[in-house]
Design a protein that fits this description.
Length: 149
Amino acid sequence: MNDMVPSRASIGLAASLAASLLAVTVVTDARAEDASPWQKDRHSAVRLLAGSRSGAVLLGGVAFQLQPGWKTYWRTPGDSGVPPRFDFSKSDNVEAVTVLWPAPKKFDDGAGGVSLGYHDQIVLPLRIVARNVDKPVTLRAEINYAVCE
């Protein structure tokens, strides 16, 4: 079974940003609560995480939690599957966002092939470049991903 899961989340990275419904704030150092709320469906959940800042470069992440027996896919999913897609275009003061992909696991795809992806939980690190280092950054993401049992 394959489910496509669109999700929207926002994350605020900088000094004293106002948190909105789907935003997190980093004051100086990242804390465990610096994350957007989990966006859940029947088999998975996703949220944005705040990290540290060094000049114009900020670190963050996209965290996935998958129910037992379910998986999601890597940037190149193999013989079957759908890679996650990220749209950061509605972010404020963001020049570029790069998704840093941890090494995937191999899975039998049930049709004689192999798919590549993740199970249980995974954080995809983000490298975020601010357009203006002196201004706050708000990262907003529309994330489309597939999960499969």
